[in-house]
């Protein structure tokens, strides 16, 4: 009885939102409730996206700064002193500043851009729109999710400006370096702010993730069976599950680290000397932190890449006017990746003294991930095979994604073997691998998503010509930057080193490093061009004149061009078919809302 | 309680909750799963450190005091009482949820009050135990208790004890606060007006979870 009552009242709430929409012109939302503390999932998506873009500029700019050091270790850049002050005395970045820059580059890009900025944006935008819901299950929690992210951003931003600088022990924040304030200048209050910010970030992820999961399980419109959902939604689902189950473990790890810093505990500390002085800490294990960190850390890379995979699947099907190849295999491999993501974390720890017998299992499970990954790649290629491809910036970035995912994924098979990893661990090879497979690929997925759904976000199109320039320079640039790093890594050149010119074995790479740094600057400039295109198009872009500019089948294109809160002015449409009826029965596309005809068979 | 299903309802076909639950309850279950991972990580960390140590203090000689009993040796008696109180508060929570299904406002208020009393009693016990241990010289970074083999123990025994029971205590505290908020709503008649007492059920889930976690914490620190 009570259960029926609950479910019934929930529907009333949904109808309420709808009634509200009908009378919207009577009481306009205030500026604060519409743009600031908005509860409309579309606005929250924009907030996540723009915050993410700001962070991306900062994080990418940091990489330009430390690439200057790596490419031109002997040169001085007086302008650096004017922006960084004593961190770049005489125009040369100090070692402390260098470590802070690489640490913050990693933190910002992995968490603030490719987690919050990517799944935060598109899960929010697309889940209600593509499953046919008026909003998230709990719009209030959704709003909180963004504002916790905003708070996390504020704290992280503050840490950049404290006197001792931000955290600088690497984005993984390994103890003992991060646990002992006396160990380095970058282990002081910067680490406390880093941990605080990340704790807030975990809360934001939890609030968002719970909402995504319950929305897409509970609030699908009539007819939207799980197997009729677009692959975007499936990927957001697995992303949210990964986040909800792995971030809490990171939080536990951080709680213990914070205690080690301030409560005199020894969870991660044992037998340590600082400046010749022995510390009292005894009985802890630094490796324990690595286990806790990578139990999140590895699922995290799938949290980053799965949304990109989902959006690329969607964009490739739409722009090649063909149904996605192997829809169920795609879901199956997303699921397999989601499960395996939790079982491979120790492959980041092969050189920590991990028992080689245990390592063997992690090698096996790691290499198993190649199977679902290869299935997905095969399906993307067969989706565009003999398709009538419309080359838009979105489709180019999707194809680029497949390319970088292959070339970055293959080196993952190298690194997943513990015996090869002993040689390659902590070298530029690792940098090359994960930047291509997760950095560049995820960004390509994100760009594809932004170009494709920009009309849904702002009712206008982004400039295509600038989009093409953006794609080609980024695509070629990404390979020029990261391909050579493989050779550096194979020769043993370590990552994170401030200056390699002192080693005769690495000196040979001086010219190559210079070349990489120049390309980095070029690619960075083109990203700024993209940012310009983005903001310019919000206000001056070509206006959208039809509801469904890409002739797509999915539900988001059945909403009005400027949909209000509640998405559909009338009833929520009912769904009758899967999301990929392209080029079927002589028709270019059949929307999901169209009933299956009498002489037609479901796909 | 007629959640009986008409013939062949297509649960997953959209337009209906596939588990026949509200989104709020679904969220609570996923949240509990998430929180289970938080505690799981802490307890596994504890296990890792403990099993890599050569020896460890004996809980029977550490937790042997009872309020007002002076130096009498009563190993684990007090913590058993604490555990009993917490489990009883779960029982009263079950009764509150049941009363909610019956739409019996008075009974909901009564059993919820008892649950809150149980929660506060548990927290008071914990406060006494912490104070007692503190006066014996135990705290984060300080461990006066020797290992069972007579050697000096590392501080990790107390480090983990205070961190994990403290984290659990924090959960009990937030549970008590939630229960008080819900009780206030019950008394105001919010759920009577709404037509169902699902909020009681949701905080009930949380409360049972916190109790369940205690069973593991209890086992790991006091029994093993």
Keywords:
heterodimer, A: 603 residues, mainly alpha, two-stranded antiparallel sheet, globular, B: 224 residues, Four Helix Bundle (Hemerythrin (Met), subunit A), 68% helix, elongated, transmembrane helix (chain A), heme binding (chain A), transport (chain A), heme (chain A)
Q: What would CATH call the architecture of chain B? A: Up-down Bundle
How are the strands of the largest sheet of chain A arranged?
1-2
Mean pLDDT of chain B equals: 93
CATH class of chain B: Mainly Alpha
**Number of individual domains of chain B:** 1
Largest sheet of chain A: 2 strands, antiparallel
CATH topology of chain A: Cytochrome C Oxidase, Chain A
Q: Show the largest interface.
A: A-B, 58 and 53 residues
Keywords (chain B): Cell membrane, Membrane, Transmembrane, Transmembrane helix
Subcellular location (chain B): Cell membrane
Family (chain B): Belongs to the cytochrome c oxidase subunit 3 family.
Subunit structure (chain B): Heterooctamer of two A chains, two B chains, two C chains and two D chains.
Summarize the structure.
Chain B: It is found in: Cell membrane. The complex is a heterodimer of chains A (603) and B (224). Chain A has 603 residues and is mainly alpha-helical.
How would the blueprint of this fold be written?
The complex is a heterodimer of chains A (603) and B (224).
Chain A: H1 2-22, H2 31-36, H3 41-71, H4 78-84, H5 95-117, H6 119-131, H7 139-159, H8 189-218, H9 231-262, E1 273-274, E2 277-278, H10 286-320, H11 327-341, H12 356-368, H13 370-384, H14 393-416, H15 418-424, H16 428-458, H17 464-490, H18 504-507, H19 510-540, E3 582-584, E4 587-589
Antiparallel strand pairs in A: 1-2, 3-4
Chain B: H1 23-51, H2 59-62, H3 77-101, H4 105-135, H5 156-188, H6 190-194, H7 198-223
Q: Could you walk me through the main structural features you see in this protein, from its secondary elements to its overall organization?
A:
- The complex is a heterodimer of chains A (603) and B (224).
- Chain A is 64% helix and 2% strand.
- Chain A is mostly helical and 603 residues long.
- In chain A, strands 1-2 form a two-stranded antiparallel ribbon.
- In chain A, β1 and β2 form a beta hairpin.
- Chain A is globular.
- Chain B is mainly α and 224 residues long.
- Chain B has a single domain, classed as Cytochrome c oxidase, subunit III, four-helix bundle (Four Helix Bundle (Hemerythrin (Met), subunit A), Up-down Bundle).
- In chain B, α3 (77-101) runs antiparallel to α4 (105-135).
- Chain B starts with 22 loop residues before the first helix and ends with a helix.
- The model of chain B has no long low-confidence stretch (mean pLDDT 93).
- Classes of the chains: A mainly alpha (603), B mainly alpha (224).
- Chains A and B meet through α1, α8, α9 and α10 of A and α1 and α5 of B.
- Chain B: InterPro entries: Cyt_c/ubiquinol_Oxase_su3, Cyt_c_oxidase-like_su3, Cyt_c_oxidase_su3-like_sf, Cyt_c_oxidase_su3_a-hlx.
- Chain B: It holds the Pfam family COX3.
- Chain B: GO terms for molecular function: cytochrome-c oxidase activity.
- Chain B: Residues 1-224 form the Heme-copper oxidase subunit III family profile domain.
């Amino acid at each position: 009885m009570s259960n029926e009552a609950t479910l019934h009242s929930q529907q009333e709430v949904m109808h309420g939102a709808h009634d509200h929409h009908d009378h919207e012109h009577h009481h306009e939302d205030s500026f604060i409730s519409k743009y600031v503390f908005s509860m409309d999932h579309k606005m929250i998506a924009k907030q996540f996206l723009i915050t993410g873009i700001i962070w991306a500029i900062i994080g990418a700019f940091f990489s330009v700064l430390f690439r200057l050091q790596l490419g031109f270790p002997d040169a001085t850049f007086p302008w650096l002193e004017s922006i960084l002050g004593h961190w770049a005395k005489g125009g040369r970045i100090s070692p402390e500043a260098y470590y802070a820059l690489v640490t913050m580059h990693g933190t910002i890009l992995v968490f603030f851009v490719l987690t919050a900025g990517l799944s935060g944006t598109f899960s929010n935008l697309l889940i209600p729109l593509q499953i046919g819901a008026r909003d998230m299950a709990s719009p209030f929690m959704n709003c909180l999710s963004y504002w916790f992210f905003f708070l996390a951003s504020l704290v992280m931003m503050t840490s950049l400006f404290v006197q001792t600088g931000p955290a600088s022990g690497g984005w993984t924040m390994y103890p003992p370096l991060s646990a002992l304030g006396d160990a380095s200048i970058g282990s002081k209050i910067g680490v406390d702010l880093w941990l605080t910010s990340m704790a807030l970030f975990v809360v934001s992820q939890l609030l968002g993730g719970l909402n995504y999961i319950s929305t897409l399980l509970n609030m699908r419109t009539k007819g939207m069976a799980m197997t009729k959902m677009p692959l975007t939604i499936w990927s957001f689902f697995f992303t949210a599950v990964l986040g909800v189950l792995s971030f809490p473990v990171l939080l536990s790890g951080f709680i213990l680290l914070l205690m080690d810093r301030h409560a005199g505990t020894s969870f991660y500390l044992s037998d340590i000397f600082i400046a010749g002085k022995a510390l009292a800490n005894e009985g802890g294990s630094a490796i324990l932190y690595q286990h806790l960190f990578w139990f999140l850390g590895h699922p995290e890379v799938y949290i980053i890449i799965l949304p990109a995979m989902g959006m690329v699947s969607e964009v490739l099907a739409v722009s090649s006017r063909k149904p996605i190849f192997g829809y169920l295999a795609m879901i199956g491999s997303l699921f397999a990746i989601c499960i395996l993501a939790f079982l491979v974390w120790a492959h980041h720890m092969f050189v920590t003294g991990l028992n080689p017998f245990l390592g063997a299992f992690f090698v096996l499970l790691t290499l198993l991930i190649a199977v679902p990954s290869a299935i997905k790649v095969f399906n993307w290629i067969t989706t565009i095979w003999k398709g009538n491809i419309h080359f838009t910036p979105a489709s180019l970035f999707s194809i680029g994604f497949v390319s970088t995912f292959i070339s970055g994924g293959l080196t993952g098979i190298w690194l997943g073997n513990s015996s090869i990893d002993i040689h390659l661990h902590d070298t530029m090879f690792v940098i090359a691998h994960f930047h291509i497979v997760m950095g560049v690929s995820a960004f390509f997925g994100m760009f594809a998503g932004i170009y494709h759904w920009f009309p849904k976000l702002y009712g206008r199109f982004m400039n295509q010509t600038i989009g093409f320039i953006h794609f080609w320079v980024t695509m070629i640039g990404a390979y020029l930057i990261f391909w050579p790093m493989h050779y550096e890594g194979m020769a043993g050149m370590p990552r994170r080193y401030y200056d390699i010119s002192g080693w005769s074995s690495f000196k040979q790479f001086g010219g190559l490093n210079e070349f990489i740094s120049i390309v980095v600057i070029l690619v960075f400039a083109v990203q700024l061009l993209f940012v310009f295109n983005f903001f310019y198009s919000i206000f001056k872009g070509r206006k959208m004149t039809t509801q469904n500019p890409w002739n797509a089948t999915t539900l988001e294109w059945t909403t009005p061009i400027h949909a209000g809160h509640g998405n559909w002015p009338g009833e929520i449409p009912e769904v009758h078919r899967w999301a990929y009826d392209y080029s079927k029965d002589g028709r270019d596309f059949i929307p999901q809302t169209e009933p299956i005809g009498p002489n037609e068979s479901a796909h | 309680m007629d959640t009986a299903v008409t013939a062949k309802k297509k649960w997953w076909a959209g337009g209906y909750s596939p588990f026949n639950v509200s989104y709020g309850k679904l969220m609570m279950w996923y949240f509990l799963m998430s929180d289970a991972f938080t505690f799981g990580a802490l307890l596994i960390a504890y296990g890792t450190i403990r099993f890599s140590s050569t020896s460890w203090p004996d809980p029977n000689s550490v937790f042997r005091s009872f309020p007002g009993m002076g130096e009498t040796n009563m190993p684990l008696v007090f913590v058993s009482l604490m555990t009993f109180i917490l489990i009883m508060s779960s029982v009263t929570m079950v009764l509150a949820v049941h009363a909610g299904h019956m739409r019996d406002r008075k009974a909901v208020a009564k059993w919820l009050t008892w649950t809150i009393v149980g929660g506060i009693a548990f927290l008071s016990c914990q406060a006494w135990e912490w104070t007692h241990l503190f006066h014996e010289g135990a705290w984060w970074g300080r461990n006066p208790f020797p290992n069972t083999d007579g050697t000096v123990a590392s501080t990790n025994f107390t480090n983990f004890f205070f961190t994990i029971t403290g984290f659990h205590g924090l959960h009990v505290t937030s549970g008590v606060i939630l229960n008080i908020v819900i009780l206030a709503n019950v008394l105001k008649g919010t759920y009577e007006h709404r037509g169902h007492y699902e909020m009681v059920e949701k905080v009930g889930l949380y409360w049972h979870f916190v109790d369940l976690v205690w069973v593991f914490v209890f086992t790991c620190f006091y029994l093993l």
